[in-house]
Specification:
about 350 residues; alpha+beta; tt1808, chain A; 3 domains; six-stranded mixed sheet; 11 strands; about 45% helix
Length: about 350
């Protein structure tokens, strides 16, 4: 575990334990935001690097202050506006950042309530901050991929050019994910018609149009599931390609199946080998956890992988209800074999 991962995990624990007492903006700044900046390698005790109550007068606005500005070697790197922990961040909270962005040399701004960190830049118009963040980091629900993105803002890794290049990519990837995710359930008629022209000889109207729309939805979902299952099956058949299968690309939909979740799935299959036909064991991802199922049936859960957070849990079902067992590494799953076997036996 990296030092950043360790520090962020500690801050997440602090928020969970003391959320009732750090609701105000000042409490958030002292208890969370400053340690967060410190975890990124900034000297929060150096007022020339982390500048509190930064003032930059704008036309028609005198004496307004943004909570923090980060500066290095005389160059403005990041403007930060803080809100209370219970504040739901919206467009109305970025007013000051918008104004300050235009009168400073910074390319990045951050809006946070202590839990959620929204990073902005000027992809749409030069020196005019975008209204939508290009990256959001949730300190209570983060993945290793998002932690790697956050690390780009650390003092040692900070590069304007590298972050801007990645920001543009993230912007379009996010837009494409939203679009394609919508298509998974409701593909546009133009797309359905494009597919129909290749596979259907009848007229594209009425019941035929509705039928083909359902066909396209089913086909998309089956393609994604089959590609994922093929990679995992190949890994199980040949130990030498396990690493390749785990590190390969995953579907870029709104629900991301992470490398760790795939490893956890492979671990469950390995532990149950000889006890149940491993071809019956399926993976089905959800927003907050990844399910490992028998016969791809939601009523036959073998385990749930709660890995999209700093503290990882394995959900077990050998009892009447799910029991979450905390783990620090996937190796600890080895000690859960008997419970997984008992669960599989329940379903016959």
């Amino acid at each position: 575990m990296s030092s950043l991962d360790t520090s962020v995990a500690a801050l997440a624990s602090r928020i969970r334990e003391y959320s009732e007492t750090i609701q105000t903006e000042e409490a958030v700044k002292t208890s969370v935001v400053l340690p967060f900046l410190q975890a990124l390698g900034y000297d929060v005790f150096n007022p020339a690097e982390v500048i509190p109550e930064f003032t930059a007068d704008t036309p028609g606005k005198k004496g307004e202050k943004v909570d923090y500005a980060i500066q290095r070697d005389g160059e403005m790197m990041l403007l930060i506006e803080c809100k209370g922990l219970s504040t739901q961040l919206t467009d109305k909270h970025i007013g000051q950042l918008l104004r300050y962005f235009t009168v400073t040399s910074t390319r990045f701004a951050l809006l946070t309530n202590g839990r959620e960190y929204r990073f902005f830049t000027d992809l749409e118009h030069p020196n005019r901050m975008d209204h939508k963040p290009f990256f959001i980091f949730d300190i209570l629900e983060y993945s290793q991929a998002s932690l790697a993105e956050l690390n780009k803002f650390s003092r040692s890794e900070f590069s304007v050019e590298a972050i801007l290049a990645q920001a543009e990519r993230l912007k379009y990837v996010s837009a494409a994910k939203r679009l394609l995710s919508g298509w998974f359930d409701t593909p546009p008629e133009s797309f359905v018609k494009l597919v129909a022209n290749e596979i259907y000889e009848g007229q594209f109207r009425g019941p035929a149009r509705d039928m083909l729309a359902n066909v396209v939805v089913a086909a998309i979902k089956e393609i994604v599931r089959e590609k994922l299952q093929t990679r995992i099956s190949s890994a199980l058949a040949d130990p030498e390609v396990v690493e390749e299968a785990v590190e390969g690309p995953v579907p870029e939909s709104e629900i991301e199946t992470t490398h760790e979740e795939l490893e956890g799935f492979l671990m469950v299959k390995a532990l149950l080998r000889g006890e149940v036909d491993t071809n019956r064991i399926a993976i089905r991802d959800a927003k907050s956890y990844c399910a490992v199922l028998l016969d791809d049936n939601n009523r036959k859960p073998l385990a749930r992988l709660h890995f999209n957070r700093s503290q990882k849990y394995i959900g077990l079902f050998d009892g009447e209800n799910e029991e979450k067992v905390a783990i620090n590494s996937l190796d600890e799953m080895l000690g859960l074999k008997e419970r997984l076997v008992e669960t599989a036996k329940k379903y016959g």
